[in-house]
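dude i think i finally got it to work??
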Amino acid sequence: MRKGILLAGGSGTRLYPITQVVCKQLLPIYDKPMIYYPLCTLMQAGITEILVICTETDLPLFKSLLKDGRQWGINIDYTIQAKPEGLAQALILAEPFLDGSPSALILGDNLFYGHQLQATLHAANNMTDACIFAYHVANPQAYGVIEFDQHKQVISITEKPAIPKSNFAMPGLYFFDHKACQYAKNVLPSHRGELEIVDVIQQYLDSGKLNVDILGRGTAWLDTGTPDAMAEATQYIAAIEKRQGLKISCPEEVAFVMGLIDQQQLTLLANQLIKSGYGQYLLSLLNKNFPNEMH
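look at this
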């Protein structure tokens, strides 16, 4: 069974002074904490065993917010990242938790939403090899860039290239097999002094065990690591939720629709939030019958 890793460590320097007191993953994106969005992405993929990696300072705050996950029918464990040393470090820190299981690593400031997203996530979760995603962006220099040949086969993956070879960026969601921890241990620090996730993925590419799924125009991917990006994400979520009357990345709803909690459990969660529109929304779900895609 695949386990999830949610990386919510780091210092959030791109958001200073906002994050000098609280980490970015606890900041709001419209009506929910930022961390709800990647958490729900893992849940929608069918992953119920999740490790949250955070700093020692933020650990009590995350535990207060997320608890052990049982209220949503999942299990959440925690481990501390003493010093941020690159995304691949998350796989090394998660090794005891994974205990030989395949994994899905998601960054705590990444938001995914779109048509058929759940089907895409389930397909990736069911793969035996590694799977990453490609997303067309206007500013590929800011991301890991995937180069394809004319047959859509991957030629190269380069971290933040000065001259990108394509406009396809690699979002912060990666599905790995049981070898990921060992591959991460093979990685040497880059010129930035970090263990780059690209170097883990390169080992899968070299071994012929890498799948790349191109996310189409019907899917939104937002990296909410800057003030502008947070504002844009908030506007995006607000516009869709107000238009549709449905919430995006609401863990209570995802858990209920996926059968992880029942009506009684949902009612209990809703009553705890009854003074807000959020609690009223949860109660409204009891009388509705939505397809699985509508969360």
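The CA atoms of residues 30 and 236 lie 9 Å apart.
im so relieved honestly
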